[in-house]
Every structure is written in structure tokens, then in C-alpha cells.
Amino acid sequence: MKIESLSPGQTYETGVKMGRKARPGEIIALSGDLGCGKTVFTQGFAKGLGIREPVTSPTFTIMQIYESGRLPLCHFDVYRLSDAEEMDEIGYEDYFYGDGVSLVEWADLFPELFPEDTVFLSIRKDPARGDDYRLIEILYAGTDDLIPDEEAPEV
Question: Is residue 149 part of a domain?
């Protein structure tokens, strides 16, 4: 599925819609350049789960857990990790295979960590289309009902 976002607000709303549909054990693997909107998407996703506390990128802490929503959200930012073994050290599998949702920023750095049913989401800028334009591509193994077609215009 491809979604064109013309503003940070639309990127946020895409996250809200996916958060509302999230299921226990789901893993969302985010990729995209610095400043493309991964954290904006994550903030919307958290809102869709019913999380009301502020959500920021855990760049220096690597992982942040939010438990105030309908499902726990484990938010990873692996940008500062040098290898996948560091994910082992923080016990990522406990979260990936737990009852909550795991959302991983910079997931493309360690693709070997993700099981087959991971939802892969990339966010890309296109300066020729404007400063706020983003192309959000969602690839998943399973059903395609994360965002119903009538709510997310295809490109």
C-alpha cells in the first residue's frame, strides 16, 4: 500500500489509523532518512493505541515502553546501535513476542531481527513535491486491513 502525505498532520493521522487497528504481538519496522517523519508517525500510532503521554524518539535510551493504551507499545530507536547483538542485550525478543506492539525506528539497519509477519513501513521525502511531502509505503505479510482503502488513498 502506498500513501501520499502532504503534511506532518497527515503522517500523524496515518499512524493513528494504524494504531487503532494494531494487534497484540504486531511488529512495525520503520525506515526512512533523518527528519522524514518516523517519530511523527509513531506519535500518531501511540495516539491510536490510546496512549496519552508524550512520545519522543528514544534515540539515546534505545527503547521506551508506554503502557497506558489498550496495548503496551515498545518503541525502539536503533540508530545508535552498532550491531544486532546489542538488541539481544536489551532483550528485544521479550517485546517482539509479547502481548504488546513493537515499533522499531531505523529497522533497515538490522533486517535479520524481524520475523516474517513484520509490517514494514518506509517513509520517504521527495523535495520536488514540496518540503512536507512524504511517500509512505506499507508492506506486510498477513491481511491488508491495517488501513481500509477508503481511509487511505492509494498512489
Answer: no
